Amino acid sequence: MSDKAKITFGEKTCELPVILGTEEERAFDISKLRGDTGLITLDIGFKNTGSTQSKITFLDGEKGILRYRGYSIEDLAEKSTFLEVAHLLIHGELPSAKVFEDFSKDITTHTLIHEDMKRFYEAYPSKAHPMGILASMVSAMSTFYPGSQDPNREAESINRTIIRLLAKIPTISAWAYKNSVGHPVVYPRNSYSYVQNFVNMMFSLPTEDYEPDPLVVDALDKLLILHADHEQNCSAAAVRIAGSSRCNLYSAISTGVTALWGPLHGGANQAVIEMLDAIHADGGGPDKWIEKAKDKDDEFRLMGFGHRVYKNFDPRAKIIKKACDGVLSALGVTDPVLDIARHLEEVALRDDYFIERNLYPNVDFYSGIIYRALGIPTDMFTVMFALGRLPGWIAQWKEMIENKEPIGRPRQIYTGAPHRPYVPLSKR
Ligand code: SDX
């Protein structure tokens, strides 16, 4: 197959090199296009446009494949731990026992947030959405660590910022939840593992002895692995383009939190549960809602369905769906919306509208059911997504910086008013 593409426009012809990926994906590099032909490309939503070459995550949307640094998501979800996957994504390799011990210890000893940051929580309204708190607290971290401003500083300073983010964001997140329910915050404990610490900060109370349930810890650890990265999704692209201005890493990650919040992206997990609860309240029948989702005049969408890349089952949805039963029965929890979700999926996947558009359940369709069974409140679901995606965002930012990629600055086609003279107010 040719290693060049040719574009002819009028009298001009431009030969463009074809880039070949590890799994035989192909792209033609248009870096010279405008210079050779005067043309730019237009691809609203970047549905056909690659923004970078990356070694972090591989997706095959047709085959439903997801790999982090070459390891399949099925293997990692079953055999690894979230912190180990975080190291893999950020540093490119599964850590040796010694490296992992140092990495974990480094994180454990940075879990406290500056006591001055605690005062921020007194200022937020008690019903503040925890994603709004998370985005602002992560950005505020840059004010407490002025030395982290320059992302081109020596590796040690960058690594310390990475450790601080991984260590402190679970604390910030759990304290946002405690703020919302008016409970006293719970400090991290060095004797706990990463996810155990988060569960303890979320659910323990000064009025009783509490030990995080190992089943809850294991289920959350798996969910965090499944959310850890997903190549150039909306929020990862936001982190990369924000970071390309060479702002500090805290600010770039805060951009990712903000982008993830949208209901078309990470906010979908909260929207799915709200949708399933509405269907349950409405009597539970899926048919009316399937019709609403198909109706172009109705803005309702089947939340948790569809994906820009997966035109087959999202492999993460398969794993979460399978885990649903195990987690709910082990916790002795029944949730009527699980049957509604299953029935909705069954009816949708038999319907031509969904089949023709390759709309399958995505990672958000079942995740909320498990989060709820674990005691996580609905408006914390997207915070859980952010906790999982944090190492992926960091890995994407780090790769962009290490590759010295230029500032991201897309072009446009202008379709506004042609040149026109100014008309003074008295004459308008
Ligand atoms: C995540 O990119 C990632 O990797 C994201 C993510 C990650 O890990 O980072 O995987 C996480 O964000 C998962 C997606 C969560 N969002 C939702 O579940 C929201 C519901 N889904 C849709 O809004 C939609 O499917 C998107 C946003 C996920 C994808 O949108 P696209 O690729 O822009 O597709 P589209 O909106 O152009 O839809 C194509 C067609 C349209 O119909 P036609 O105009 O062709 O007639 O499919 C229809 C859409 O109306 N469609 C849906 C639908 N999703 C798409 N119709 C009903 N219900 C839906 N859920």
SSE map:
Layout (H helix, E strand, L loop, with lengths): L3 E6 L2 E9 L5 E3 L4 H5 L19 E4 L4 E4 L2 E2 H7 L2 H10 L5 H12 L6 H9 L6 H15 L10 H27 L12 H10 L10 H13 L7 H10 L5 H12 L7 H14 L5 H8 L20 H17 L4 H13 L3 H5 L6 H11 L7 H22 L26
Antiparallel strand pairs: 1-2, 2-3, 4-5, 5-6
Helix pairs in contact: 2-9, 3-18, 4-7, 6-7, 6-11, 7-8, 7-18, 9-14, 9-17, 9-18, 10-11, 10-18, 11-18, 12-15, 12-17, 14-17
Bound molecules: s-citryldethia Coenzyme A.
S-citryldethia Coenzyme A (SDX) binds next to α17.
Key structural traits:
single chain; 428 residues; mainly alpha; Rubrerythrin, domain 2; Citrate Synthase, domain 1; Cytochrome p450-Terp, domain 2; three-stranded antiparallel beta sheet; 18 helices; 51% helix; binds s-citryldethia Coenzyme A
Task: Report on the architecture of this protein.
With 428 residues, the protein is mainly α. The protein folds into 3 domains: 47 residues, Single Sheet (Rubrerythrin, domain 2), CATH 2.20.28; 209 residues, Citrate Synthase, domain 1 (Orthogonal Bundle), CATH 1.10.580.10; 107 residues, Cytochrome P450-Terp, domain 2 (Cytochrome p450-Terp, domain 2, Orthogonal Bundle), CATH 1.10.230. Helix content is 51%, strand content 7%. The chain contains 18 helices and 6 strands. Strand 2 and strand 3 form a beta hairpin. Helix 9 packs antiparallel against helix 14, helix 10 runs antiparallel to helix 11 and helix 14 packs parallel to helix 17. The longest helix has 27 residues. It starts with a strand and ends in a 26-residue tail after the last helix. 40% of the residues are buried. The mean pLDDT is 95.
